Amino acid sequence: MTVEEIINFTIDGGVPLKKRWVEFLLSKLKKDEKIKLSFVGKKTTENEKLEVWGKGYGLVFITDLRIIYGWNNDSWLSKYETFKDLIITENTNIEGGGSSIGWVKISNTNGEFIFGDIREVGKIIDVISDVINSKQNNNTTNDDVFGKIEKLKKLFDDGVLTKDEFNIKKSELLKSI
Prior knowledge:
Helix content is about 35%, strand content about 30%.
């Protein structure tokens, strides 16, 4: 995606989206990482999730791998940047609330993000839920493949399959994940 496409695609937040935030976060993406959604929000705490304004506003990318939060400032007064990410796993929890302006909390064993002063909370939760579900489906698929390999190994051990037949089938199964 281009910077302009992301700017048009981003859900507005409590402060205007900065082009330099988009460029900064794009530089943090991994080679094949895909952006599912982006929004402007305020990284906050549990106690302040319903407050608006204040510090901590930035751009958030939801990708197929992780949640990325960041912003930067490069002015004649100062230069600084903030970048944090959270890998999405099949055990990631998500909750949210609020009405026209809301909050969302994403957490797992890798850490926690709470964003406040955001719009379209339902859409954000849906996109993150889809990424979590795809992780769960991938793990189920992997478990199925490993189960089939175990069955093939038993057939090989019982003399039903030759070593070549076992290796060919095992290779085919491993390529499917």
